[in-house]
Amino acid sequence: MNIQLALDRLTKEECIDVVNETREQIDWVEIGTGVIKEYGMDFVRDMKARFPEKTLVADMKTCDAGNHEAKQVFEAGADVTTVMAFAADQTIIDMLKVAKKYESRVMVDLLGVSDTKRITEIQSIGVDLVSLHFGKDMQKSGELEDEYFSILKGQEDLEIAVAGGITVDSLPRVMKHNPDTVIVGSAITKQEHKGKVAEQMKEMIRNYERYYSNSSE
Ligand SMILES: O=C([C@H](O)CO)[C@H](O)[C@H](O)COP(=O)(O)O
């Protein structure tokens, strides 16, 4: 299980510092939508140059003009870009085509998707990576509940990331659903001891994986 560190509502310097502080514990680095809006593709380029060993996710949240946005972000060095699930199939198809050319990937953000129909549709056009996403504003009046995972039940062929206010306290509940990637933002980036929290989360994941690999032997 990967940890994807989401960099949101931070300055460039804060982004760089928090990745340096958590470098050993995190696997994927996400440049958040707001950070991309503030600093653009130059910062995507800069982050790839600084942290070449990390899978760099640019949270573009594309909803139209997929061909252009995918080219833009992969050219800047992103390994993964995001597109909203409600985008037209053509947008997603165009992005998948560009991703193939750059040997990169497209993650479909399932924010707002509440039935399996759209999941089946995006799979049929070639999507293999999705993120189950309980949005920042939704977090003001609720949290990522177990039932939220039900739309992905039995989806063996999809690689699944999950995001939405995940903390040290909620991580055990999230891990139970065996996502491939756990996306964590504020619970690390807004803490005083960022490295320590990241280390604690990584250790929880290691223990969980150890327990399940032992119990299946
Ligand atoms: O995608 C995100 C959100 O829409 C803000 O742009 C976040 O990166 C994602 O939710 C993870 O952040 P936290 O919820 O703070 O863990």
TrEMBL record:
Organism: Pontibacillus yanchengensis
Principal EC category: lyase
Record-linked Pfam families: OMPdecase
InterPro entries referenced in this protein's UniProt entry, alphabetically: 3-hexulose-6-phosphate_synth, Aldolase_TIM, HPS/KGPDC, OMPdeCOase_dom, RibuloseP-bd_barrel
GO molecular function terms attached to this record: 3-dehydro-L-gulonate-6-phosphate decarboxylase activity; hexulose-6-phosphate synthase activity; orotidine-5'-phosphate decarboxylase activity
Signal peptide: none
Pathway: One-carbon metabolism; formaldehyde assimilation via RuMP pathway; D-fructose 6-phosphate from D-ribulose 5-phosphate and formaldehyde: step 1/2
Name listed for the protein in its UniProt record: 3-hexulose-6-phosphate synthase
Record-level GO BP terms: 'de novo' pyrimidine nucleobase biosynthetic process; L-ascorbic acid catabolic process; one-carbon metabolic process
